[in-house]
Specification:
This protein is mainly α. Helix content is 52%, strand content 5%. It has one domain. The radius of gyration is 13 Å and the shape is globular. The mean pLDDT is 80.
Length: 84
C-alpha cells in the first residue's frame, strides 16, 4: 500500500507541474500520465491502480486533459491566470 502512495504522489506532482508548462490549460491526458509514470519507473498496472483512486476529472467541457480533485485545484488558484 505504501508503494501505491508513492505512485499517487508522483502523479499528483506531475499534474502540478503541468500548471507551469501550460498555465492556461493545466492538466495531463491519460496517455501523458502513463508516459510520465513509465519514465518514473512505474508499471502500467500501478498507474492504473492509482488512477482510479485519485478522483481525477476533466479540466473542461470536451477536454481530454485530466486534473486533480477540486480541493487541489483551489491550491493552484494563484498559478492560474485571471480574466478581469
Amino acid at each position: 500500500m505504501m508503494h501505491l502512495q508513492k505512485v499517487k504522489k508522483f502523479i499528483a506532482e506531475a499534474l502540478e507541474c503541468s500548471v507551469f508548462i501550460r498555465p492556461r490549460e493545466p492538466g495531463l491526458t491519460f496517455a501523458e500520465i502513463k508516459e510520465i509514470g513509465d519514465r518514473g519507473g512505474y508499471r502500467e498496472g500501478e498507474i492504473g491502480d492509482v488512477f482510479v483512486t485519485m478522483g481525477l476529472h476533466s479540466m473542461g467541457r470536451g477536454s481530454k486533459l485530466l486534473g486533480p480533485e477540486q480541493q487541489t485545484l483551489i491550491t493552484w488558484k494563484f498559478f492560474l491566470p485571471e480574466t478581469p
